[in-house]
Task: structure prediction
Amino acid sequence: MNILLLGSGGRESAFAWKMSQSEQCSKLFIAPGNGGTGAYGTNININPNDFEAVKTLVLAENINLVVVGPEEPLVNGIHDFFLADAQLAAIPVIGPKKEGAILEGSKDFSKEFMARHDIPTPASQSFTNETLAQGLTYLKHHSLPVVLKADGLAAGKGVVICETTADAQEELQLMLGGKFGNAGSIVVIEEFLTGIELSVFVLTDGDNYVILPEAKDYKKIGQADTGLNTGGMGSVSPVPFADEKFLKDVEESIIIPTINGLKKDNIDYTGFIFFGLFKVGDKPMIIEYNCRMGDPETESVLPRIENDLIELFMATAQKRLNEVTLKISPKNAATVMIVAGGYPGDYEKGKAIAGIDNIRKSIAFHAGTSLENGVVKSNGGRVLAVTSLQDTQFEALQSATADAARIYFDGKYFREDIGFDLM
Ligand code: AMP
Ligand code: GLY
Result:
């Protein structure tokens, strides 16, 4: 089979790595890919949001399967674009149509979906410019801290946690005033949860689902979870505090009601659902859905899946995921993200990277890199995801951290404490 993978980050490197191991993979194209994905297939420099360019590529290369990594093309309707085109309609796309991607594309929609289907989530209310006065009054009586969320996609920056009523009122006005552009034309005001976060993923064909290994993502830039939020500085899988009983509870109170809710709402969903969860006491609550896999969670999750990923995708496309049994490695995965100095603020690109071949017990999944005349250079904030799969969590953490130290570029930074809080 010829496969097209859309995206360019560490998540896509992990997908490409895993799919290229399949006997069913004849040719793999990655668009646009990065400085490392060329090791698994052919990079094609097109923008995944340029659907006409994607179509031209799909027809020219006789693509039989399209896998969409990031959320934006899904929220923009790439799956619908395929279905509406006679030449593309029969080609399976892994990733939901617009009607399903809205679970991530609109926080207001997803909160209403959770409420409608009795899925445990913190209390919330949405406001717009028309209801700003009510919003300000609502905040006056709200407990603190309070969470404000821009409704639409805001490149991971649309959530603001406010410690005082005055800050929250100012933030509400800024968001509704266009701080995040159109994404903030609706603002969800949500109760603040105290607990510990984790991510759970399913792959669903709309009727059946398989639960993938859970993961924990480390969002803050600084050691010991301090400083600014990032796209993710590392991840581990499995998550020790997510024991069998807790995961059963997640399935019963969150996953099954979500799959059934999609069916009740006539949303035919094909692809990944990412459940952003909090463990509050013993109980799971959901704070968000994403319509794709997480990054850097994917880099820790995929190495633990022993199935052929292309077979899993074809079973998804053909609505026969019920025939599939997931084989999960009992080993532990840890991912340490190496980032550019200054990230998540301003940072420089184009730094030559040395030492990738020196790593001993890990895989270096390229994230923000480019390949220029044979030299790998940094090309983004999150540069490389170093993943190690070992018998114990300690070994995995230690190997990934030690290998991250073996790679060098000017200004490089990584957290040395990823996962050690769970020991
Ligand atoms: P998101 O962009 O939705 O992933 O949110 C970013 C981060 O904000 C999450 O990873 C949480 O750490 C935090 N967050 C979001 N919602 C809540 C909440 N209701 N209570 C506490 N923290 C939250
Ligand atoms: N690591 C969080 C995300 O992918 O949204």
Remarks:
- The pocket of adenosine monophosphate (ligand 1) is lined by residues 122, 147, 156, 159, 190, 192-193, 197, 219, 276, 287-288 (CB under 6 Å).
